[in-house]
TrEMBL record:
<feature type="compositionally biased region" description="Polar residues">
    <location>
        <begin position="1"/>
        <end position="14"/>
    </location>
</feature>
<dbReference type="InterPro" id="IPR011545">
    <property type="entry name" value="DEAD/DEAH_box_helicase_dom"/>
</dbReference>
<feature type="compositionally biased region" description="Basic residues">
    <location>
        <begin position="439"/>
        <end position="449"/>
    </location>
</feature>
<feature type="region of interest" description="Disordered">
    <location>
        <begin position="1"/>
        <end position="23"/>
    </location>
</feature>
<dbReference type="InterPro" id="IPR014001">
    <property type="entry name" value="Helicase_ATP-bd"/>
</dbReference>
<dbReference type="InterPro" id="IPR001650">
    <property type="entry name" value="Helicase_C-like"/>
</dbReference>
<feature type="domain" description="DEAD-box RNA helicase Q">
    <location>
        <begin position="40"/>
        <end position="68"/>
    </location>
</feature>
<keyword id="KW-0378">Hydrolase</keyword>
<dbReference type="GO" id="GO:0003676">
    <property type="term" value="F:nucleic acid binding"/>
</dbReference>
<keyword id="KW-0067">ATP-binding</keyword>
<keyword id="KW-0547">Nucleotide-binding</keyword>
<protein>
    <submittedName>
        <fullName>DEAD/DEAH box helicase</fullName>
        <ecNumber>3.6.4.-</ecNumber>
    </submittedName>
</protein>
<comment type="similarity">
    <text>Belongs to the DEAD box helicase family.</text>
</comment>
<feature type="short sequence motif" description="Q motif">
    <location>
        <begin position="40"/>
        <end position="68"/>
    </location>
</feature>
<dbReference type="GO" id="GO:0005829">
    <property type="term" value="C:cytosol"/>
</dbReference>
<dbReference type="Pfam" id="PF00271">
    <property type="entry name" value="Helicase_C"/>
</dbReference>
<feature type="domain" description="Helicase C-terminal">
    <location>
        <begin position="255"/>
        <end position="415"/>
    </location>
</feature>
Amino acid sequence: MNRSSRLPRQNAGSRSAPVDGAGREFAVPVSTVPALPAVESFDDLGLPQELLSVLARRGVTAPFPIQAATLPNSLAGRDVLGRGRTGSGKTLAFGLAVLARTAGRQAEPRRPVALVLVPTRELAQQVTEALTPYAQAVRLRLATVVGGVPVRRQAEVLNRGAEIVVATPGRLKDLVERRLCRLDAVGVTVLDEADQMADMGFLPTVTGFLEQVAEGGQTLLFSATLDRNVDRLVRRFLKDPVTHAVDPSAGAVCTMEHHVLHVQNSDKHATIAHIASRDGRVIMFIDTKHGADRLVETLLASGVKAAALHGGKSQPQRTRTLEQFRSGQVAALVATDVAARGIHVDGLDLVVNLDPPGDHKDYLHRGGRTARAGESGTVVTLVLPNQRRGMNRMLTTAGITPVTTKVRAGDEELTRITGARVPTGVPVVIPDPVVERPRHSRPVGRNRYGRPASAARTRQTADGSRGTSSRSHNG
């Protein structure tokens, strides 16, 4: 039996009414059943020894606040509503719970028993790679279901059986409609970055998935912000959830500095080039794909190792560009919002908004690329005179009080804040992130899984690994 018959909860004692006003957040629910207390150590959670061993090998010694608070309850089967900015430790907060509660189960073909929904391909890859060592330890199979990758490969992985599916809504909907995946056996569902999925228009699709999963299942919802769209999901699908907020004020992260730099239009491009020439990596957010490509051309010509990341790139190109950025082959990543959601790069200490974000939620998600997991970081926004008033309103909504400075290219203050320096002026060339296409040397269906043998070397396998191809990092 599925959950389509579940009605919206109207228990006034467990929920405050949403706050009026665009962009405002609703009050988080108050659990009618007391939450279990937070733990100080992973050893206190009763996790399978295999998971504890992987944590120890990877040097994960103590849980982050969101893990310490939510894991006792999620492991006990409670629904969880967690508000935490990117980098707060959400992936292990829900991942360990899913793995522990799924361990020992075996999925039938096309019928996963756990589902993790995320807004973007990059975040799906990141989650898969973060959880793969733990999943392998408890003999669970992971399948990543995202767009930009041939449907057939993903369908074959599901057909062989995968206990946990990490998916973006669009591709999963496609597979479900083709009857290549069924959700009626899913007992644990995770919605990661639920606010972003809602903002991207996926709320009806996500609602449809939640209506198909097993009745009485567990739902874990994590979001950086809690607006009306997320409230709809909470009211309908979460049963007396335990709530936990890492950041009472969404923008208040003690390890993150916020700067607004007032620039003149005539000096903006030079200022950008100086910042991009810093000694260290930087993500620069820009509004349009065309603008990203044009800026990268300019930066390369001035001597900056730059590359663009946006929705106009194929998934293999985006993956390779991220690898180049992580390895240092690319120092300045010029990205649009959609393409950069879910990017996780360790040690990134500077994010620059070349164009002010569309709203306070976009600002928080952009800034979430830095100051992750307790590291320090700086978020800088370049603001033209006609943008100042709107930017001030946005930061007030986000609960952020930035340091405001008027700068020009070459200023000492610009260097102090961002590490800016004069570009070399010597053009550089970054190899195009072209992924070799598999050569179809035999008709489809000739080998074991119905694909050319060359494709098998680069496919993503059910446990999240990359076959025999070489790949550095995490996604």
